[in-house]
Amino acid sequence: MAKKTKFYVVWQGRQTGVFTDWKECEAQIKGFEDARYKSFDSLQDAENAIQRNYWEFVARAGQKEAPKPTTLPPASIGKPLKEAIAVDAAWNTATGDMEYQGVYLQSGTKIFLQGPFKDATNNIGEFLAIVHGLAYLQKKESNLPIYSDSRTAIAWIKKKHANTKLELTPRNKPVFEMLQRAERWLAANKFTNPILKWETEYWGENPADFGRK
């Protein structure tokens, strides 16, 4: 009997998305702190899952209550700051298109929207969104914090480098040009805006989410 194909969803890892090969999935999660992933029996289920919250599927797997992060106990999280902006990206697993946007938390007003861009990744979108937000706030001479729900993108910002394994193609060349400009901006500019993790498990969806779940 032929071996049944599994589809692996990585919500949090070196690269996020849907993978059809376990070795490829394992490369994204092995040794990655707080990796979040799960296997599915069909591509449709996997593509639906990547657009939803990881904890929903953990709970469905039989846990009565979704586990809470051990590094950030609920008592220390509190509530998100209202005087801030939030950024987020959306990645289409079928087409590979990516787009990102930013909003003011206080009013929900959209302040920028970019894309879609061909053959990109969600992590790249999250990284570009933070840099766009920083540049926007710099022009406004504002020290507002920026919320992102991507630990990977926040880590890339700290290193001032997008550590993507995405291969350059004619279709995604504009994305790589944007990455280079973003990295040059980070290298040339100083900023004091706090880059904060949006705690989806406790606060709900990122206000900059595209709402396609």
Automatic annotation (TrEMBL):
Q: Out of the domains of life, which is the source?
A: Bacteria
Keywords carried by this UniProt record:
Cytoplasm, Endonuclease, Hydrolase, Magnesium, Manganese, Metal-binding, Nuclease
Q: How is the cofactor bound?
A: Binds 2 metal ions per subunit. Manganese or magnesium.
Transmembrane spans: none
**Cross-referenced Pfam families:** Cauli_VI, RNase_H
Per its Swiss-Prot or TrEMBL entry, what cofactor is needed? Mn(2+); Mg(2+)
The residues listed in the UniProt record as binding Mg(2+) 1, with positions renumbered to this chain, are D88, D209
Where found?
Cytoplasm
Name the EC number(s): 3.1.26.4
Where does the protein principally reside?
cytoplasm
Identify the residues that bind Mg(2+) 2: E126, D149
| Single Gene Ontology MF annotation | nucleic acid binding
Q: GO cellular component terms?
A: cytoplasm
- Please write the reaction equations for the catalytic activity of this protein: Endonucleolytic cleavage to 5'-phosphomonoester
Family as reported in the entry's similarity comment? Belongs to the RNase H family.
Q: What does this protein do?
A: Endonuclease that specifically degrades the RNA of RNA-DNA hybrids.
Q: Please identify the protein, giving its name as recorded.
A: Ribonuclease H
Native source organism of the sequence: Dyadobacter luteus
